[in-house]
Every structure is written in C-alpha cells, then in structure tokens.
Amino acid sequence: MANKKQPVRRPNNLKHPLIALLTDFGSRDHYVGTMKGVIKSISPDTDIVDITHEVTPHNVREAGYLLWASYRYFPRRTVFVCIVDPAVGSSRKIIAAQTTSYTFVAPDNGLLDWVILQENLTHSFEILRPPTALTEGISSTFHGRDIFAPLAANVSMGRPLGRFGKEFRMKKPGPFLYNDSETSTPPQLLHIDRFGNIVTNIPERLFDKCVVGVGTTTIANHIKHYAEAPDSIPCLIVGSSGLIEVVVKEGSAAQTLRADLSTQITVGRFT
Q1: pLDDT at 45
Q2: Are residues 61 and 190 in contact, defined by beta-carbon separation less than 8 angstroms?
Q3: CATH number of 19-167
Q4: pLDDT, tens digit (0-9, with 9 covering 90-100), for 164-219
Q5: Cβ–Cβ under 8 Å, residues 75 and 189
Q6: Domain coordinates of the chain in residue numbers?
Q7: Following DSSP, what letter does each residue of 36-99 receive, concatenated?
Q8: Which fold has domain 189-269?
C-alpha cells in the first residue's frame, strides 16, 4: 500500500469507544448535528470526532480515500460512521465491517473498499434489524439519523453487531492505486483539498519516474517541499498519505489548471 506510515494504535481508555463521522452532509444544514444528538441521547458518554463532512456530494471514491488516509490515526475500538449514500432509501445494503482494531459502518457502495484492502477483516455484517432511532419510523431520505447514528451508539455501548443483522462475505475489491502495468487501475484524481492541492492515486514509488498530465497540461517539476517550488508553476510532490499530488506554491493547483474531480489525468515517463 502507498501509505507506509503505521502509527501506534493506542488503546481507547474511554468508557465507550469513540465514534468518528465522515459524510458529505456539509455544515450548513442540521444533518450532522441531528446525528450527534441521536448518538448522545442513546450513549451520553460517547465522544464524537468529525473526520470531515465536506466530501464532494455523492462522491464515494473521494470518501473512500479520505477514510483510508485518516482511520489508522485513531485509537483502537473507534467506530467509524461513513455516509456518502446516493442510493439512500433504496434496496442497497448497510454494512458493518470489523477488524481487530476498528468497526466501520457504511452503505454497501464501495466506500469501504480502500480500508478492506488495507485491513484484515474479522467479521462483516449486513444490517437488517437496526436499533430504533429517536424518531417516528425510518425516513427514506435520512438513514444517517434513523439507522447509522443509533447503530453506532449501540455498538459504542458494547452491543454486538450480530444483534442487528447477519454475517455475510464481503467481496474483496480490486486495487485502487495506479501501478503502471497494462492491467493497472487507471490514474485518477481523488481529492482536491482546501489549498487546491490535487491528490492522485499514483503511489510514491513512481515519483521519480513519472510526469502527470492534468487536462491538457503536463506537470514535470518534482519537489520535496512546498517552498522549493517556483512561483505559480504546478509541481509534483509526495503528500502525507504517500500519494503524488499536484501543487502550486502559495496558490491553488486546481484553479491554475481549472481542474475538478471529473478532470482526466494521465501518467507519462519522466525523461
């Protein structure tokens, strides 16, 4: 895997495991606050951490990357609630995956693929009997409040996932990193951070060997840190998650290159 850093997973000495939230709900509406209210109503002693709620709406791939880049820095027993759910209310499954260190709850839409490739799963469940939420019935548009939040609160309180569903075998996903082979996953743009840095799925091991095309522009300047970059010139750098990023010193690579998450990228040989 590209992300070689494996921090020490310190025990969670809290009374109840931490709950970490990752969604595309944003901060403008009541959705995140309502979920937290449900969690606290069921399990008042549970602490909640926001990973982000600014995932690009409906972008499952970006959510999977952001979870993968962050989860290993949390204490053991953390319960991750990950909601980017374009098919909310449909027949899509809600799943929970357990490893020796963590529990992940998400729609069954590929959001957990990066984690599944990184971690060894011990159990996985399809949620069929979610615990009762603090509302009248289950809304077809807000499963975060009515299913995910009460489920996470109950898991944090130590109730087994088997009470809420059945075990099922999760399919092992295909690779998500570009590996410069003929059968490789194609190069992809995964995320644009608030600085305008463009995160790709190209691993660090290819850094010295490649140039990256973003739209019609080829980026061939390689730098080790931001201050090394020439002014206003897009450059390649290895980001904190071990993936190659396109950056502009004290500027926005995304704005400079007029790139968004739908922009096509290419990889070429460095000469």
Answers
A1: 94
A2: yes
A3: 3.40.50.10790
A4: 999 998 888 888 999 877 667 899 999 999 999 999 999 999 999 999 999 999 99
A5: no
A6: 19-167, 189-269
A7: HHHHHHH-TT--EEEEES-SPTT-HHHHHHHHHHHGGGSPTTPEEEEE--TTTTSS--EEEEEE
A8: Elongation Factor Tu (Ef-tu); domain 3 (2.40.30)
